[in-house]
Every structure is written in C-alpha cells, then in structure tokens.
Amino acid sequence: MQKKLRFIVPLLLILSLLLPGLALAAKKETTPGAPKKTTVTSPTTPTEPAPTEPVTTEPTTTEPTTTEPTTTQPAATEPVITPAPPPSKVILGYYPVDYVGDKTAYNSLVNYGSSMNAISTFTYLVDGQGNLTGTVPTDGLTLAKSKGLKTYALIHNYTNGGFNQSIASSLLGSPANRQNVINQLKTILPANGYAGVNIDIEYINPADRANYTQFVKEVKEALGPMGYTVILSVIGKTYNDTTSNWGGAFDFNAIGQYADYVQIMTYDEHYPGGTPGPVASIGYVTKAVQYTMSTMPKEKILLGIATYGYDWYGTSTKTVNYLTVPKLLSQYGVTPKWDDVSKSPWFNYTDSYGRSHTVWYENPQSTGYKLDLVNQYGLGGIGIWRLGFEDQSFWDVVNAKLK
C-alpha cells in the first residue's frame, strides 16, 4: 500500500502542476476574438461561395419577378386589342377654271370642301416641247389649303376643244422635252404649295406606249425623292388594250409600278357624238376595277366618279349635271326612269322645236353603287370629274359611303 502511495503522490503532484496550463490553453483556443488562420486556409473554404449565392440571385428572384406584371400591364390596356381604323380614302375633286372669272369649282369648294381631302387644278397646258402654260387659281389654292386639303397641279394636252395627239407624241417621244416638263414642275410645285402633280395626257398614239411609261418613270424618279406625289388620269380599261387611241398607250402593269395613284376615268362609256346610253354603267365600271386590280395594287386605284351626264338630240350632245337635270324634269314635266341593269337614271323629252332628246345622267343612287365598289374592293379612293356640277345630295352619299 505504501509502495503504491509512493508512486501516486508524486503523480498527483505532477498533475496539479500541469492542469492549470492545460485549462489556460483551452480558454485561448475558444476565445471569439482570437484569429484563426485555419478558417482561411481550411479545405472547407471552397464551399463558402454557396452561402453567398442567394445574395447575387436576390434581384432576379425577388424584385424583377414582382415588377414584371406592372411592366406588361400597359401593353394589355393599350389599343392592341382594338383594330386600327382603315386609312382614309382619297376624295379628290377636279378643279377646272373654264374662263376668266369662272367660280363654278370655287363655289363647290366653298360649300363642300369639308367633304373632300384633295383637289387637282386643271391648270397647265403642255406643248410638244414640254413648256407649261396656265394661270394658277390662287383663290382656289388658298381656300383649299385653309380647309386642310392637298392640292395637285394637273398638266394636260387639252386645247381647242380636244386632246391633242401631236402634242402628246412630240412631248413623249423626246427625252429633252420630257425633262423640260420635269424641270418646270420642280419650280411650279414648291412655288404654289402643291403636294404633287396629276398627269392627264389623253388621246395618245398607241405607238407612244413605251414613251408614256418612260415619262411617268422619269417624273416619279425626279419628284418622288422631293416628297411629291404623282397621280395619273387614264382611261378606264376592261382589258389590256394596246391599239386604240384612247387606251392603247396606257400600260397599266408598268405605270402602276411608278405612280402613287392611278385615277381610272370610268365614265364617258357613252359619249358626245355617240349613241345614247349610260355614262358609267355598273357593269362597265366593275369590269374596269377588276381589270385594273389585276395590274397594280388596289390601294393605288382612284375610281373615277362623274357628276354629269349627256343629253343626246339629233346629231348633237350637250352636258347635263346635278343642277340642270331637275330643271329639265320640271320644265318638261318628265318623270325619270331607272335602268336596273346599268344602275343608271334616264329619261326622254321633246323640246319646243319638236326635237326628241334622250338623257342619261348620274344621281346619288347611281353614284352610291359605284362608291360601294370602292369599299368592296378596298380601292384607294375616288377622283371626281368635276367640281361645280354637283349639289348637296352628291356629297351626302359620298359622306355616307366613304367617311
């Protein structure tokens, strides 16, 4: 027992000396403020980026997702679900001045200007060398612009009561003469505030077909980049006529590529000096529209609308219109008839000299059938020949159908 104690006592003495040191070391090892290099170099540090990932992804997982509905709401409330209104139709009125002091077209513009959006002034006569002459209707231009209408300068070859074919041939067959017209237009259009040019050259030799197309191309290439519109007035054709003096020169497929608008003159189906009949039967007009649509974009087509008719008697013919027809009906006590095939009104009467007259004309009813074609086929609009021959009833049907 004593031997054991001899060994135990010294052992206890040694332990009593070592324990305080071990306790102090343990305390230092667990002190929070003590730096530990092992936390930097420890093999566990490569996994530490995992705790930082939520920090880098928080913007996309929280705020963006909560704000997305607000960014899409405006698109849902904007008029995306409502179809845009169709572009307005061109309602172009032809504005001639037949003599000094003639206010016929001007008065129409005063009374009905709010029902149209453009006029072409029948102003500039072109000669064979390409010279343009004419008196600008400044009063009409000023009035039209005050009403917000676009105005176009119309150039034509109508002289001494008819369209002159030799003028057309001389002009169209010469590059220099064509350029002369273009150079003058570059001055005339801006000087008078015109929005463009309306080319109304008629009764062209069919041999000048390619020359006419070239002229249209040159006018468009010169004036288009300047911001001007090019409108053509051409005969309403129902097939690819290449030989007649009235329609043969107009290559619809070609000119439709260059012109901004092509106004087809779908009237004078029956004409002065010919046999009496409808000025613009619905059958003829429909066929003309369909043929033209096969050659060019429908939006470029302006349908010709007449405000007149003809009174045939003997070998003579005179023009009637919305203003004069009621006077004839009243004077001779006549009731007009309706031809349902052509959708046209007509009547007969005998004058005080015993001469028999046959009258075919246009009225709101016949005009309405033609305006329906504009909507049915989605055409660009109408070209009205002419201002001053119509009354309020004409514009009532235009407003009802196209506005």
Automatic annotation (TrEMBL):
PROSITE patterns for this protein: GH18_2
Pfam families for the chain: Glyco_hydro_18
SMART domains for the chain: Glyco_18
Gene Ontology BP terms: carbohydrate metabolic process
InterPro entries associated with the record: CFLE_GH18 (IPR041704), Chitinase_II/V-like_cat (IPR011583), Chitinase_insertion_sf (IPR029070), GH (IPR017853), Glyco_hydro18_cat (IPR001223)
Residues spanning the signal sequence: 1-25
Region (Disordered): 29-83
Keywords of this entry: Glycosidase, Hydrolase, Signal
GO molecular function per UniProt: chitin binding; hydrolase activity, acting on glycosyl bonds
Biased composition (Low complexity): 53-80
The protein's name in its UniProt record: Chitinase
Protein species of origin: Heliomicrobium undosum
